[in-house]
Structure formats: C-alpha cells, structure tokens
Amino acid sequence: MADRLSKDTLEETARLITSLMGLHFPQERLPDLERGLVSASKEFGVADIEAFILWLKSTPMTKERIEIMASHLTVGETYFFREKDTLGAVETRILPEIIAARQQGEKRLRIWSAGCSTGEEPYTIAIILHRLISDIQDWNITILATDINPASLKKARSGVYGEWSFRNAPDGIKAGYFKRAANGGYEIVPFIKKMVTFEYLNLADDIYPSLLSNTNAMDIIFCRNVLMYFRPDLSKKAVTAFYNCLMEKGFLLVSPCEALASITTLFVMENHHDATLYRKDSAAGAGSNPQANARPALSADRFNLKGVPPFAPPVSQTASKPVGAGSNQQANSRPALTVGAGSKPALKEDNYDVALRMFNNGRFKEAAEQLEEELRHLPDGRSAILLARIHANAGALDDALKWCEKAVAIDRLDPYCHYLRATILLEEGRLQDAVEDLRRALYLDHGFVLAHFVLGSLFLKLGDERASAKSLKNALEILSSFSPDAIIPESEGITAGRLGEIISSMTKMS
Q1: How many beta carbons lie within 10 A of that of residue 445, not counting itself?
Q2: What is the largest CA-CA distance in the chain?
Q3: Average pLDDT by consecutive 10-residue portion of the chain (510 residues)?
Q4: What is residue 138's predicted lDDT score, i.e. its pLDDT?
Q5: CA 113 to CA 252: how far, in whole Å?
Q6: Residue 230 in contact with residue 257, Cβ under 8 Å?
Q7: In whole angstroms, what is the distance from residue 322 CA to residue 51 CA?
Q8: From the CB of residue 362, how many other CB atoms can be counted at a distance below 10 Å?
C-alpha cells in the first residue's frame, strides 16, 4: 500500500465493520484496523486497499468471509503463560480455594477459555492444573476452549507450536510438557492435550449458557483480549451471559486493558497483588437487580417441556418428515404430555408457568423449590425435565440426573429425556453412557437433529472420525428440511442456519 488511508475513510470503514461484524474500532485503534484491512485484502486477492473497501461495501458477508475478516482484524497472537499477574492469581489463590473446598466432596472443576485462538491459553490452564492437583486422575475436569476462527482451532487441536509461543513460559515447561514434532516444532504431550476440548463458538451471536455448548456451571471463565473488539452493547451482552454461565462465587478473568467496571456492575471486583479479578456474588452484586440474572426466555415447547404422546413408535414406523422440519411453527412443537393411565392429573398450568418464569429470570433456587413441592404430590414429566435443567445449569449433576430418571420413569418413550440425560452424562465424563442415551433418543425419533449433532461431537471427542462424520451428515440432511431462520426444537434458540454453520466449522477443524 503506497499511501495510508485518510482518517475519514478509516472512520467510515470502522462503522461498516461494526455494522457487519459487531467489532468496534475507536479512534485509538484505527491504525490496527488499517493493518488488518491490508492483511485481509491480500487473502481475498484484492491488491488495492481502497478497492477492497469498496468490495466490502458491496459484497454480502457470508459466515466464511466473516471468519476470514475476524482472523485479520483481531489479534490472534498468543503465547504460553501470557499475563503472569492474572495467572499468578489463578495458581496461588483461585484454584487452591476451589480445590481445597472440593477435595473431600465432588471433585469437579469447569473452566472456559473464551476466544482461545490457537490454544496456548487453555493448554496453559491444563498445565497449571496438572502441577497443582496431585490426584488429578480422580477429578472430573472440563477445560472448554472456544473461538470463531476454525483455522486457529485446527492448529490448537494439533497442539504443535514453534519457539515464539514459549517466549514467556517458565523454565521446564517445554521439557516437561512437550515433545519434538516431526516439523521441528514442539507438540504438547497427550495427557495435557486430552484435558482440553476445542469447539467453535461465536461470542457475539451464539447463545450461552447452554447445555448444548457445555457453557453452563463454569467455575472460571477466561475472556482476555476479546471484549475490547466488541461494540459496547455486545460487550455488555457477552458479560451478562458470562455471569449466567458462572457458578456462584465463580470468576471472570479479562485482560488488564478491558475494564469490566465500565461495562457492568454485575461482578464484585477483587484485587490480588497486581491482578484485578471479577467474582460472581449474587448477594453483593446482581442480587439487588432482579433482571441481572435474566436469560433468554424459554417457551414450554422449546425444551419439549410439553413432552410427547404416551406412545411414540420409532420414526421409521411413522411419518418420514422429521419433527420440527420446515418453517411452520406448529411443526416445531411436540404434543402435550399425557401421564400414564391411572396417574394423577398433570401439574396445574399456572404453577408450572410460575416456575418457568422464575427459571427464565435466573431464579433457579425458587423455581426448583416450587417444582419440587408440587412433584411430591403429582408425577409430571415436563416439571421433572425442567428441574433436571435447573440443577444441570447450577452444576448439581447428581440432582439433575435424579430428576432426569424421574422424567424417564414417567415416559420412557420421550426422546428428549434421553437426550437431556446424555448431555448431563457428558458433563460427568461418562462418554459411553452418553452415547447409549443418544442412540435411544434417535431410536425414538430419528429426526432429532440435536441428538445427531451431539452424537457427532461426542464421536469426534472419542476419536472416531468416521462415526462422527456419519452423525454430522445425518444432522445436515435433516437441517436441509428446515428454513434457515427456523428455531431448532430443544436447542435453546439456535436456528437451523446457525447449527449448519457450526457443523460446517467442525468439519473444517477435524
């Protein structure tokens, strides 16, 4: 590029990028925008930067183009043990507190690296945990790592890095946790690699917390050098969603340049030496705001809370069109649950609706108390399912499974009961049991697209790429009968088009 772009052109382009992608470039970051545009223009094969900007104005931004642009306009560079002050607080304060509190009880720990780039951050977390927990083999540890860039995720899954990724690593890390790769780089050892799960997720568009994406009941969320790219409303939306993803007393960790206090008052700010930490404390923070915990409203039929008929033969014996197919909203709902012969009437609609509203507003404890009181007297499948979801979102997996079992006992032919139990078993690390429940769900409803999707993801985690490809192909075939903007049943609001994009991204990463 011979000449620099004018300030007016950059400001106009910044507004265009914000409208297209939700990325925010204030005055001080316009030079970063210009460098990113120059880099992106080369990948798109447009040599002249001004011609590239004109092309952006006139060309529809597909998901693939957004991914390419995002890879150039956001800083993907990272390295092991980045931001030592924050990691020091994690290693010497946050994790020891959690480990000590759970050492004699349920040894369970859930951490999310949101915007993980090429994987150095989540692998750093895994190494820290391995150094801290002497009986780590006895723990159920989830390290979820997500990013919008499939190319970065593919590199992260390979676990191979060059010298530059170790520029801030403590002595002994490379020798203790890496081995020489064929290309001359360094490959992370298998027992650390297996601790991390990499998934595609768009923080600006996707829905979380969600059992589907495994973003619920987190103890710690790392989201460093990500929020600074979002326009203010998207930053606030993401931070509120992170709050709902966290367990009570859980931590959100952002980079020092991302002042969370200017975005939200939900979290309680704490200092540890030179690190600023943000803790979820409902009593001190969001507890005074009844809307602070609000999550996207759930309809009764979205999670199959209305159940299925008392007898539902396999789909192969019924209509061939998958449940929920197409844009007809009535096609997306299941019939109301009929409790078995001789049982008591279903829970009163108004009582159930009260509990559902409590759940939608993040008042999980009150919703659970309301439903448990009623279920002492009445067998009701949809209430048992909602109770299972409430406990799963709160990280109480034993209670979630208990209510799942009650729902199955009420109606063993409800495919959603088996699907929900599979998602809970996944959180417990019982992968083979989850496979069996997903197969039961698909036997009862072969058109259950989410069951195909989760089964494909699970096979990928188990290393069976052939079975994964088959399940994901089945999911895509079923999705072809939906309109792109149709909400997938039991998906917590994901559209058919969005799920198709996620599946396509998964195939790029494998």
Answers
A1: 25
A2: 82
A3: 75 89 86 91 89 90 82 82 94 96 91 95 97 94 91 92 93 94 93 94 86 90 90 89 92 86 85 91 60 47 33 31 36 34 45 80 79 78 87 85 89 91 89 95 95 92 90 95 89 86 75
A4: 93
A5: 10
A6: no
A7: 46
A8: 20
Q: Is the peptide bond before 415 cis (omega within 30 degrees of 0)?
A: no
Q: Within 10 A of 376 (CB to CB), how many other CB atoms are there?
A: 7
Amino acid identity for residue 400 in this structure: A
Structure tokens at 489: 């049943």
The separation between CA 328 and the C-alpha centre of its own chain, rounded to angstroms, equals 28
CA 294-295-299 angle, 5° bins: 120
How far is residue 415's CA from residue 400's CA, in Å, rounded to a whole number?
17
Can you give the pLDDT at residue 346? 47
* Whether 429 contacts 140, CB under 8 Å: yes
Structure tokens at 75: 């800083």
Tally of residues, the chain: 510
Distance CA 499, CA 290 (A): 32
- Spatial distance between the Cα atoms of 373 and 171, rounded to a whole number of angstroms: 57
| Eight-state DSSP code of residue 487 | B
Q: What integer pLDDT is reported at residue 378 of this predicted model?
A: 76
Residue 201, SS3? coil
CB atoms within 10 A of CB 59: 10
The secondary structure of 153-185, three-state, reads HHHHHHCEECHHHHCCCCCCHHHHHEEECCCCC
Cross-strand bridge partners of residue 146: 114, 199
Coil, strand, or helix at residue 299? coil
CA distance 10 to 37: 10
Q: Which residues of 104-131 are buried (b: 16+ CB within 10 A; e: fewer)?
A: eeeebbbbbbbbbbbbbbbbbbbbbbbe
Spatial strand order in the sheet of 196-200: 196-200, 140-147, 108-114, 218-222, 246-253, 275-279, 268-272
Contact 22, 231 (CB under 8 A): yes
Query: What amino acid is encoded at 324 in this protein?
Result: G
pLDDT of the residue at 1: 43
Give the list of residues 6+ apart from residue 458 with CB closer than 8 angstroms, or none. Answer: 426, 431, 434, 435, 438, 468
Instruction: Kindly state the tokens that stand for 232.
Output: 């203010």
Q: How far is CA 452 from CA 65, 437, 475, in A?
A: 27, 12, 5
Q: What is the pLDDT of residue 205?
A: 80
Alpha-carbon dihedral 361, 362, 364, 367, rounded to 10 degrees: 0
DSSP β-bridge partners for residue 160: 187
What 3-state DSSP class applies to 24?
coil
The set of residues, in sequence order, having a beta carbon less than 8 Å from that of 255 and lying 6+ positions away, is 83, 86, 224, 225, 228
